[in-house]
Amino acid sequence: MVIEYWNLRFVCNLVLGICNFRHKNPRQNHLYLTWPRRPGFKRRIEIMDFIVKTNEGTYDLEAGVRLIGKDLLVAIWGGEKPHIGVVSVAQPRPSLKDPNLTSATASVFCFVGHKEDELAKAASEILAAALNTQVVVTAGIHWDNISTEGIQNILKNSEILVDLILDKVASSYL
């Protein structure tokens, strides 16, 4: 369900505790956000939260995923010192080669010294194009003294992670 009106009053109500979260069904990992009736507000939005992990044995990654309305927020982490090193924001658009296909455009902010930018950009563009929605991906992955082979394993695991996210979102909403 998409939020039609997101405004300061709603955010203030959420912060002040007037709104509340409640589970739709204890067996599902879906939350509904509800608030009192006010003109111009939708009564509730559905939020989906989950974590996926690769299980390849070495250089495994995790991702926390939150579906907010129809938009997707993804945090990817792994290694000895998980952190936020990069943020990538992508939106779907018609493909430049074939307007009948959906592609995506991304912008990336990378903190100094971090090298997760290509991983986050690829993940956000793939998710935005496949799900036809706006996507924000954060990534922070760190293993000390990693080899070139280790980096290749991380890239392979990031592809697996994106596939896991797509499978989970598609099975729940598409």
At CATH's second level, what is the architecture of the largest domain? 2-Layer Sandwich
Report how far the terminal alpha carbons are from each other. Answer: 12 Å
Biggest sheet layout: 8 strands, mixed
CATH topology annotation of the largest domain: Ribosomal Protein S5, domain 2
Contiguous helical run count: 3
The beta-strand count equals 8
Low-confidence stretches: 1-38, 41-45
Q: Largest sheet, order of strands side by side?
A: 1-2-3-4-5-8-6-7
Order of secondary-structure elements = HEEEEEEEHEH
Q: Per DSSP, what share of the residues sits in E-state strands of 2 or more residues?
A: 35-45%
User: How many structural domains in the coordinates?
Assistant: 2
CATH class of the largest domain: Alpha Beta
Q: Tell me the structural class.
A: alpha+beta
Fraction of residues in H or I helices: 25-40%
Cα-atom radius of gyration: 18 Å
Q: Mean pLDDT score, rounded?
A: 80
Shape: globular
Please tell me about this protein's structure.
With 174 residues, the protein is an alpha+beta fold. The chain folds into two domains: 8-46, no CATH class; 48-173, 2-Layer Sandwich (Ribosomal Protein S5, domain 2), CATH 3.30.230.90. It is 29% helix and 36% strand. The chain has three helices and eight strands, in the order H-E-E-E-E-E-E-E-H-E-H. It has helices at 8-16, 117-131, 148-173, and strands at 20-23, 30-34, 44-53, 61-68, 71-79, 86-94, 102-110, 135-142. It has an eight-stranded mixed beta sheet. Helix 2 packs parallel to helix 3 (148-173). The protein is globular and about 45 Å long. 24% of the residues are buried. Residues 1-38 and 41-45 have low confidence and may be disordered.
